[in-house]
Amino acid sequence: MKTLRVPEATVTRLSVYSRFLERLDRNGITTVSSGEIAEGVGVSPAQVRKDLAYFGEFGTRGVGYNVKDLMRYTKKILGLDQNWPLILVGAGNLGYALCTYKGFNSRGFQIVGVFDNDLTKIGKKIAELEVLPMEKMPEVIEKHGARIGIVAVPPRAAQEVVDYMVKNGLEAILNFAPVALNLPEGIEIRNVDLSVKLEILTFNLGFKSAQHL
Amino acid sequence: MKTLRVPEATVTRLSVYSRFLERLDRNGITTVSSGEIAEGVGVSPAQVRKDLAYFGEFGTRGVGYNVKDLMRYTKKILGLDQNWPLILVGAGNLGYALCTYKGFNSRGFQIVGVFDNDLTKIGKKIAELEVLPMEKMPEVIEKHGARIGIVAVPPRAAQEVVDYMVKNGLEAILNFAPVALNLPEGIEIRNVDLSVKLEILTFNLGFKSAQHL
DNA sequence: TAGATTGTTAATCGATTAACAATC
DNA sequence: TAGATTGTTAATCGATTAACAATC
């Protein structure tokens, strides 16, 4: 079996290309070159071609890529040719924002259950969904066939939440709590830390100032 | 002048180490080794030492690092020895969540102005702040000496927003809109795309399934 | 001194880029 | 055919890791 290891950065860029192609398609553009994609998302043309080359040959030499086709291919590669039901824990402000975030729905993600252990939140509605107590999670996972969970609780509660998610069969976790979580082998996790990139900015601003000295 | 280029990944990890050290400090732990930091945040011990080595010698051979000191050093390196006023554009659900996000305040970030061009939102209060029309931005930037702006508007509005931010003197942008933005030379930008990491998860889940075939 | 752990160098690994043959 | 652009290889670049002397 040919085990090609795809760099995570390639998958990240594929996601970005994919959304850029959707925009071109909405604008009625039918053909695009690696150079135009590169220009549109801020990478090099060679990078675009190399990233695509991990998965096949999608273009026509001398011509470029068919926008609609390449859009479909990239989405399929990312697993976005299907809908993904999501389980969300944490009905605070961040949870609320995620529930109503358009960027999820437009890519086939749908939050199908919102959970919290705060009695003052349980029973309230977020968008169309009633906030449920944690004990209801198994049944919601079962009903929708959910495989992915989102953690939007404070750091100190996060480990307990993912343990519960894993116990109930979720296979992948998107974690918004700024803390490293321990998970069993085979469970995928990615962290979105809202302030890390802000700290990269302050680092760079400080560095820039320092160079004037 | 010794121009050492610090990898962005190093700065990212520094931010993570820094928060881990804060937690150790809160728990009353006074000394820590590179191995313990590595364990706590999920990287290699050599990586921890190498990352720190870009900036100086902070440890004691045979002993490790003083938690409080290293915490202060890492925060200082990241520019977090000062407070950072932030300008936020977009008073939707995401904007609301960012305004109330504890993870910002605990690192010295403070949103000092929230702006929107939606007349139904202007005048409303988010936390302590009144949502202001865009025209008020120059005066708020001036008043607080803000240098960083956060974009939490829909993709199609984002370019116009950053243009306006840059015109009014902001030097760094944290962009939550899933679109590549064009900025003049010298302006720092970082994107936080809420769904990219979700798509890495779906990619990996698909890949895992494929390997069973 | 013996044990532990840093700081740093050199080796390894992997990702990006440049270049060009293939081909529309 | 001439011009354009892909797919792919080889070269370059940069980041991570292993290893160990320094030293507490």
Automatic annotation (TrEMBL), chains A, B:
<protein>
    <recommendedName>
        <fullName>Redox-sensing transcriptional repressor Rex</fullName>
    </recommendedName>
</protein>
<dbReference type="InterPro" id="IPR009718">
    <property type="entry name" value="Rex_DNA-bd_C_dom"/>
</dbReference>
<keyword id="KW-0678">Repressor</keyword>
<dbReference type="GO" id="GO:0003700">
    <property type="term" value="F:DNA-binding transcription factor activity"/>
</dbReference>
<feature type="DNA-binding region" description="H-T-H motif">
    <location>
        <begin position="16"/>
        <end position="55"/>
    </location>
</feature>
<dbReference type="GO" id="GO:0005737">
    <property type="term" value="C:cytoplasm"/>
</dbReference>
<dbReference type="GO" id="GO:0051775">
    <property type="term" value="P:response to redox state"/>
</dbReference>
<dbReference type="InterPro" id="IPR036388">
    <property type="entry name" value="WH-like_DNA-bd_sf"/>
</dbReference>
<keyword id="KW-0805">Transcription regulation</keyword>
<keyword id="KW-0238">DNA-binding</keyword>
<dbReference type="InterPro" id="IPR036291">
    <property type="entry name" value="NAD(P)-bd_dom_sf"/>
</dbReference>
<dbReference type="Pfam" id="PF02629">
    <property type="entry name" value="CoA_binding"/>
</dbReference>
<dbReference type="InterPro" id="IPR003781">
    <property type="entry name" value="CoA-bd"/>
</dbReference>
<dbReference type="InterPro" id="IPR036390">
    <property type="entry name" value="WH_DNA-bd_sf"/>
</dbReference>
<dbReference type="Pfam" id="PF06971">
    <property type="entry name" value="Put_DNA-bind_N"/>
</dbReference>
<keyword id="KW-0804">Transcription</keyword>
<keyword id="KW-0963">Cytoplasm</keyword>
<feature type="domain" description="CoA-binding">
    <location>
        <begin position="79"/>
        <end position="180"/>
    </location>
</feature>
<comment type="function">
    <text>Modulates transcription in response to changes in cellular NADH/NAD(+) redox state.</text>
</comment>
<feature type="binding site">
    <location>
        <begin position="90"/>
        <end position="95"/>
    </location>
    <ligand>
        <name>NAD(+)</name>
    </ligand>
</feature>
<dbReference type="GO" id="GO:0003677">
    <property type="term" value="F:DNA binding"/>
</dbReference>
<dbReference type="InterPro" id="IPR022876">
    <property type="entry name" value="Tscrpt_rep_Rex"/>
</dbReference>
<comment type="subunit">
    <text>Homodimer.</text>
</comment>
<keyword id="KW-0520">NAD</keyword>
<dbReference type="GO" id="GO:0045892">
    <property type="term" value="P:negative regulation of DNA-templated transcription"/>
</dbReference>
<comment type="similarity">
    <text>Belongs to the transcriptional regulatory Rex family.</text>
</comment>
<dbReference type="InterPro" id="IPR058236">
    <property type="entry name" value="Rex_actinobacterial-type"/>
</dbReference>
